Amino acid sequence: MLFLLLPLLTALFPGGDSDVGFEEPVSFHLVQTSSFHNHSWVHVGSAWFGDLQTHRWNSSSNTIIYLYPWSRGNFSNKELIVSSFSPLIHHSSSPDIFDLQVTAGCELHSGKSWVGSVHVAIQGHDFLSFQNETWSPSPKGGRKAQNACRLLNLKEAYKHRVYMLLSDTCPRFTLGLLDAGKALLQRQVKPEAWLSSGPSPGPGRLLLVCHVSGFYPKPVWVMWMRGEQEQLGTQRGDILPNADGTWYLRATLDVSAGEAAGLACRVKHSSLGGQDLILHWAPHSALGWILLVVIVALALLAGLGFWFRKWIEPREILPLS
Fold first, then answer.
1. Distance between CA 7 and CA 13 in Å, rounded?
2. In which domain of life is the source organism classified (predicted)?
3. How many CB atoms lie within 10 A of CB 149?
């Protein structure tokens, strides 16, 4: 079932070496979805360095698309012998609808050791996984997963090759990516932040919204505060991508209208150098609205006075008959 996984891994883990130093978490993963609908297969594949997509698979030509000039890592063309990004399974007796999801890759744990793994899901449910040179069935996979793992674990040479790709070649290729793309991957972009109010949660209540956008890298801390006291009712949304590769997040707080004064949104991010962004909530007061109305009224009166003078002055100099 999964014997075509090896060409997939080989395609993006071609070899090479690097001695790049780093402190941040590092990971590289391949993601492939294969769907059988209407008597035909559709395969979608991609590769990710952390949260950044670096490769895409062109299913029509069986070729890998490198999304950045440095996506090949720091290897020469001679070293980078890329095989086709092959689909994972072929079955002439597949059911009418069949979905297979596979994630394979490696990541650095606690800055000390690399861990490689493969996870396979069928119809959206965990089926089996590979780690430490062993295929293991998921508890939800049932007898089919157990039988598949039993057959796969009999193939010692295949298991060892997959293990070496995940535990040795994948980390070296990932370090090569980090080295080749460090100008982009290690950049720091400061966030911009602003406040607004959302739809009222109910009578006498306010929904305070703190928008944080344009930051990179992705990790960020946003919290509504009263002085130094964190407001535990803060609700943070998903961190969403902007078109330029930076990120956006919003944090909301549901409070009574009388408790909004004194609240502030606090933003921590690595690009700020320890200088947090703090935005204080300052709603428009009744006095402010009164002053605005008075200013508008005075402006209208001044305009009317100017128009009246322009209209009446020519008539004052007409000779008496």
1. 10
2. Eukaryota
3. 20
The rounded distance, in Å, linking the Cα atoms of 280 and 292 is 22
| pTM value > 0.70 | no
Which tens digit of pLDDT belongs to each residue from 170-182?
A: 898 898 898 888 8
pLDDT in tens, 260-280: 999 999 999 999 999 999 999
Rounded Cα–Cα distance for residues 191 and 267 (Å): 9
In angstroms, rounded to a whole number, what is the distance separating the alpha carbons of residues 69 and 180?
Answer: 9
* Cα(164)–Cα(116) distance, integer angstroms: 9
Q: Where are the domains of the chain?
A: 5-185, 192-280
Could you list the beta-strand ranges (E) of the chain. 27-37, 40-49, 52-58, 63-66, 98-109, 113-122, 125-131, 134-137, 192-197, 205-215, 221-226, 229-230, 235-236, 240-241, 247-256, 263-268, 277-280
Q: Which of 125, 104, 121, 97 minimizes the C-alpha distance to 41?
A: 97
Question: Would you say domain 5-185 falls under CATH 3.30.2310.20?
Answer: no
What is the DSSP-derived secondary structure letter of residue 258? G
Q: How far is CA 99 from the centre of its chain?
A: 24
* DSSP label of 189: B
Cross-strand pairs, 43: 34
The residue among 251, 261, 259 whose CA lies nearest residue 283 is 261
Cα-trace Rg, the chain:
31
Domain 192-280 sits in CATH 3.40.50.1000: no
